[in-house]
Every structure is written in structure tokens, then in C-alpha cells.
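Progress narrative, work stream C.
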Amino acid sequence: ARRTMKCKTVQVLWHEKGPVLSVDFNPASGLLASCGTDKEIKLWEVREDADGNPDVKHVDTLTSHTKAANVVRFSPGGDMLASGGDAGEVFVWKPGTSTNLHGDPTTWRTAAVMRGHSDDVQDLAWHPGGAALITGSVESTCIVWDVPKAQGVYRLEGHKSYVQGVCWDPQGEYLVSQSADRTVRLYASRGPPHPLGSQKWRRNMSCQKVLSKAEENADPRAVAAEAAAAGAAGPAGAA
């Protein structure tokens, strides 16, 4: 049977009419998080109305960022939320009662503030196990964070321009960063497995591969066409 996807544009004054920069769903509860240039994180409950159409209800506004909040990501288990912004800080949020700067009660609280970047945090990603984060910054570096200890355990360098995206592979073995320098860097810890962030893990961590435009494989159709054209024209220098 064919199913029709329903779409509804919800007219809400999100983020004081400023740009919304990132959104993410909680994998456990379905809660939606959004953030933007107004420095706030908003949490939304997404549900169906009486007619079966999608509806959104505002739940919380989290206000610890002092500059634009660029990215929000729920942990794999949905029990934590991480956010990064223009102040270079990374916030980790957990369920718990608190009060925001507007004096409103919230159901999520700041659990940790991690500092290490000197410029905007553009992207972040959780380790599949939920105990670590990687962040990428305008300062051209990435930091791997031990979330329970709320501290950076490794700084990845090598990009020559802004780091615009980061991710872990689903097995948690590889780290990848992308940059405005038009390269993608692939990192891994060589040798036998060691606890994430441990001294041996850090000692063995290195960039395994740098992907750039020059390393793309040529289009086989273009190669064949070029070879055919060369054959039709004859060897170079022929009359």
C-alpha cells in the first residue's frame, strides 16, 4: 500500500526571527532541538494533531550560550544534548530541572561546559558509545572530548582553513573532518584497541589519509573519450 507523507509548516516565531542554524531529533524520545543566532536552544515536542497532521509544541528554551549557537546534537542514547557556538564553548545538557535566563523553568540543565577552542565551533559529533565528542572549529582544528570528565583529550590539527564538518564512523574506529581548505582528513588510532582518550590511544592516533580534489579518480567515460580522440588524431607530430 502506498503511503502519503504529510507536511505542515508550523508558523512559530522561532529564535526571534533570526536564522535557525541546526536541528536534531532525540533518538529515544523524538524530542526536537533547534538552535540559532539568538544564542538559544529550543526544544520541541513533535506529534500528530486530531486530524493526523504533524504539530509542534514548544517545551523548553535553554539559554547558556553567550553568542550564536551553531550546532546541536543528541547523544546516541538520547540522555544528553551537546551544543557548540561562536564563543568556542561546548555545552553538555542533561535532563533535570533548572531555570533559564528568562526566569522560565526548564526540564534540561547544563551538565558541563567544555572550553578549548579559541573560535567558533561549527560542528560536533558523538562517539557511538556516547562517552566522547569530536568538535570542529573555525580555528582549523578539531578536539576529541571525554564527556564524563568534561575535558579535551586530543587536538587534531592539519587543516589549513575552517573545519566545517566532523563525524565518527558507526563503529567508533575512525574520525573524519572536512574543511574549507577542500580536504577531508581521516584519523584512526593505530595498533591494538585502547580505551578512548587513554595515553596509548592518544600516542597511536594519527591522520591516516587526506582526501583532496586532486585524488579523485578520473571519470572512465572521459578517459575513454580522450583516448578515442587521441587515436583519431594520430600520434603527436603526425602529418
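Work stream C, second folded protein:
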Amino acid sequence: MAALVTVLLCVRAENRYIHSFADEFGDLKLQGVALQKTAFTQSDLLVIYGSSELLSSVHGKEGAFFEEYPTGFRAFPVGKQGAASLPIMQKIASLGRYVEGRKVAFTISPGYFLSEKANVDYYDGNFSALQATEFAFSTHLSADLKRTAARRMIQYPETLDGNWTLDFGVRRLAGGSFLDSALYAAVWPLGKFANLVGRSQDHIEAGLKIAENTEERNPKPHRILRLNWKEILRKTSVKVKMQRPPMPPLLTKRPRGARDADFLRILKDACARCRFPADPQ
């Protein structure tokens, strides 16, 4: 009973102070589930998933531009260096019904299309056992999607070491046979229990983080200002022109090392695997 009350108090604190986490990029926010779920419940926060571009010191980037709620909302970026499509999928899948019907934004890195397999170190650095377990034992995803993602996940066995429930569940999902399905059903209760424990720990860690200094975490006042878009675009155009590198001479032939062919090949293979319905006549 005491544990339940503690978790509920932490959830209450998350709802009150979630806006103060908008510009943070700590593991509690990126690798956990509680703060991301809470962000999706706020009508004045827009969750943005991406990679290193979210952390770059670019003038006018989303976090700074919307910090004072100029149009009624603030950006809530989630991501760090090397966050490719697979770990981002796990983050979203771990949130379940909280993302249903909600607005969300993505920044897509060109590197996603030029590599068939994520860098092992990058994937390991973005991997969250909590999010992966939520995905593996979720009820809101199709069996085909879970099987496809599981087959990608077992390509990084180091991230599954030491977590028997997750490792067993993911490998059974990837197998897809009748025996695999039966074994997956058998371990299902353990997976759901692991999710329950993980969520509780996540809420408590968030509550302790907030309790460290609640005064500094008071939500910033919403100041809905009228933006002068013409002036913003003018200043941005001037800044881009000042920072633009000199134009190289026109090339008479394609330089060595161009990756257009790789991109087109990967795109062609991806399209070949898609099954789109025929256009209605």
C-alpha cells in the first residue's frame, strides 16, 4: 500500500513539473517512460524525437525557439547522438495508449537511409531495457510488427545480456513458430510483471529527481506572443548568408565516394518489400 501511495505521489509531481524537463537530456527522460508519457498528456507540449540534431547549438533550434511558448506550446525534445529508427520505435512503442491521437514530431537524419544496420555503439548507448521490455510485452502492437522489430533487436545480443525475461521474450517473438508462440505466452506474465516493476521504479526515480530542488522546477509562465514571421525570416536569411561557405566550382563529373547509388539501392529494396494495395480504378 505504501509503495502504491509513493508512486501516485510521484505521478502527481511529474504532472506538475513536467515542463521543467523540456530542455533536459538526461537518462531519466530519454531512457525512461514516465516523463515521456506525462509529456504526451500535456496539451502545451509537443514531443519531438530525433538524434544529435536536437542537441546541436543551432541558433533558433526548436527547444530555444519555442521555450517561451510563443505560439501556445513548447517543444519537448527526446533524443541524443546515434538515436536511429529502432531505438526511437522502442521509445514510442513503450508509451502505449499515451501516444494515441496525440501530435508528435520527428527529425529524420539522412544516415537512417544510408545504413541497413545501426552502429553497435550508438544502439547500445540509446538502448533502454525498460522501453524494450515494454515493447516486447505490449498489447497494442501487431504480431507482425513485433516480430519484425524483434528480429532487428536480436542483432544486438549484448543489449539483451543479463535480462533473461527480455532476451527470452524477444527471441521467441523473432522465431515466429508455433513453439515460439507457446513459449512466449508462457513467459508473458513474467514480462508484464517486469513492466510493472520497471514503471514503478521509473516513477520513483522521477519523483526523487523532482524533489531534489522543486524551487528551480517551477513551471515557466506561458507567454503567448505574436510572432513577426517576416522579421524572423529576414534575420534567418541574413544569418544563413553570413554563415554560408563559399560555393565550390561546378563539377563536371560525380566525385568519388558519392553515396547516391547506395541510397537508391536501399530505397529500391525497401520499396520491393512493401505491399501496397492496388490503386482503385
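Confidence is low (pLDDT under 50) at residues 276-281. No further action is required on this item.
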